[in-house]
Design goal:
With 224 residues, the protein is an alpha+beta fold. The chain has 6 helices and 9 strands; from the N terminus they run H-E-E-H-E-E-E-E-E-H-E-H-H-E-H. The two termini are 74 Å apart.
Length: 224
Amino acid sequence: MDRMADSRKARGGGVCVMVNNSWCNANVVTLAHCCSPNPELLALKPTRTLCELHEALTQFQVQHWDLLVFGDFNSANLKCEVPNLYQHVTFPTRGKRTLDHCYTPYKDSYMALAHPLFDHTAIFLIPNYKQKLKQETQIQRVVVCWTDQSVATLQDVLDDTDRYMFWCSTDVNEFTEAAVGFIGKLVDDTIPRATIKMFPNQKHWVDKTIREALNSCTPAYNAA
């Protein structure tokens, strides 16, 4: 920016900014300029750097969606070029400025903590989620206790049942409903039930025998 007549200064040659072509290929956008008796301002923004970074990240995202981008971005904001990435660093990383950024495709997925160890503040990311196992509480469930004794008791009751009382029905649907309902009533009366505690990571079919079998394999697994 050459010094203009608005500056009312007779000496000096104005403001000159030179940018290395190997860094941004001279693709620079003028953000602001001012030439007055007090300040002479020229604000520039190199655009080629972010464009090349956008092209590289676009290729990475096609192959790997779980992408984490870290770096010293200074005044650049990657969010402008890649809107589907989110910045998680909200505190200054050098002095009073937030120069170091951490981007991921998931909004509010990480919590960034500051560790002032180096020239720039070290950033520690913690996943900002809770495991489902920790969120859910244990529940109580009523289960049927099928033991050899209870099954034998049910068989004796069925042997003593007069099956001919169901044959008076001429409709097959009524016969089926009556027979199934009667057997269900016998099961409720003869098979004992128990209330157990269920945990979120435990399947309903996992009983004491299965847990004992799994626990018996643990020493052999640890010794391998």
